[in-house]
UniProtKB/TrEMBL annotation:
Source species: Gluconacetobacter azotocaptans
Entry keyword set: Hydrolase
A GO term, aspect molecular function: hydrolase activity
Start and end residues of each Dienelactone hydrolase domain: 16-219
Higher taxonomy: Bacteria, Pseudomonadati, Pseudomonadota, Alphaproteobacteria, Acetobacterales
Stretches assigned to coiled coil: none
PANTHER family membership: ALPHA_BETA-HYDROLASES SUPERFAMILY PROTEIN, CARBOXYMETHYLENEBUTENOLIDASE-RELATED
A Pfam family it matches: DLH
Protein name, UniProt field: Dienelactone hydrolase family protein
């Protein structure tokens, strides 16, 4: 089990974050939330990475718009999450992600994000130099930022039946970035990695997680 800490971004904004893992863990990782906040699921993801030997921080990115946000996986949660995300400029989100990386105080830090967090991980890889490796799971905004060039190795995961990320978007990302490892999963929809969502796909989640851990281990 982890603990809640307070981070300070470079512009002076303070935000909460969930930290898990031993202080002397051999690897460091920032976990970036979905549009549902640093909720039960994201904390569980952090705990799992901590059990795998990571020191993990998940910054509460919604704190710039509203604090203590934990949303349910339903229509109202989606609406609220989209509203909060739209209220926060991407540049400010990156400041909060970098504050999380700084809190890990490690020579090499990785980043992994889910849903909105997958897109944030992509932006962080290209618009900062804070990370040695980046992993994105079903980041819906990546194709719209296809012109970004990552400064570190990147691995991306997409479900082949994702109603919000067509395979044509995945193909466009692959064509623009042949050096990025892009993996797809049959019969997997958006959010396939979250056991609290109807779209959960246990087999795809296990395979994607195994691949993510192997990728991070190679680069951190």
């Amino acid at each position: 089990m982890g603990t809640t800490i307070t981070l300070t971004a470079s512009d002076g904004h303070t935000l909460s974050a969930y930290m898990a893992g031993a202080p002397d863990a051999p690897r460091a990782l920032v976990v970036v939330q979905e549009i549902f906040g640093v909720n039960h699921h994201i904390r569980a993801v952090c705990d799992e990475f901590a059990a795998d030997g990571y020191r993990v921080v998940a910054p509460a990115l919604f704190d710039r718009a509203e604090r203590d946000v934990e949303l349910a996986y339903d229509a109202q949660g989606v609406q609220t999450g989209l509203r909060l995300r739209a209220a926060i400029p991407p540049d400010r989100t990156l400041l909060d992600v970098m504050a999380a990386a700084n809190a890990l105080n490690d020579g090499k830090v990785g980043i992994i994000g889910y849903c909105w967090g997958g897109t944030v991980a992509w932006m962080a890889a290209a618009r900062t130099r804070a990370f040695a490796a980046a992993v994105g799971w079903y980041g819906g905004g990546i194709a719209a930022q296809n012109d970004l060039v990552p400064h570190c190795p990147v691995q991306l995961h997409f479900g082949e039946t994702d109603g919000s990320i067509p395979l044509s978007d995945v193909a466009a990302i692959r064509a623009a970035h042949p050096d990025v490892e892009i993996l797809t999963y049959p019969h997997a929809g958006h959010g396939f990695g979250c056991s609290e969502r109807d779209s959960f796909n246990a087999a795809a989640t296990q395979l994607a997680r195994t691949r993510s851990l192997a990728f991070l281990a190679r680069h951190l």
